[in-house]
Design brief:
Elements (H helix, E strand, L loop, with lengths): L24 H15 L14 H7 L1 H26 L5 H18 L1
């Protein structure tokens, strides 16, 4: 029924076992990586604060937070019901899609 389809991006050819490795190439690469690591800025231990003071905006509009919580709970209830259907073996494509739509909506509401 299904034909062998070629990947749109063919895999690179396997390296030839007989092809010689350039002498010192691995050492040069390792040294380059060490130099790059030393030159890189240190990683931040704390995530960057969101631009525009998003947390402050939420504090200014408690009704927005309340609406988010109410709507999110409704979607979580739907997700729970769909997961129970799936667990009981009564899932359909629509059951799964409904659960994903609810997750997606919560994500969108969160901004």
């Amino acid at each position: 029924m299904s034909k062998n389809k070629q990947s749109p991006c063919p895999a690179p050819p396997a390296p030839d076992a007989a092809s010689p490795v350039l002498p010192g190439a691995q050492d040069d690469i390792g040294e380059s990586l060490r130099q790059l690591g030393a030159a890189a800025p240190p990683l931040e231990s704390h995530p960057a604060q969101p631009e525009g003071d998003a947390a402050c905006a939420l504090n200014q509009d408690p009704q927005l937070v309340q609406d988010f919580l109410v709507e999110s709970r409704e979607h979580l209830t739907n997700i729970e019901a769909r997961m129970l259907e799936i667990e009981q073996g009564a899932e359909t494509g629509e059951t799964i899609n409904s659960a994903f739509r609810s997750f997606h909506t919560i994500k969108g509401l969160a901004g």
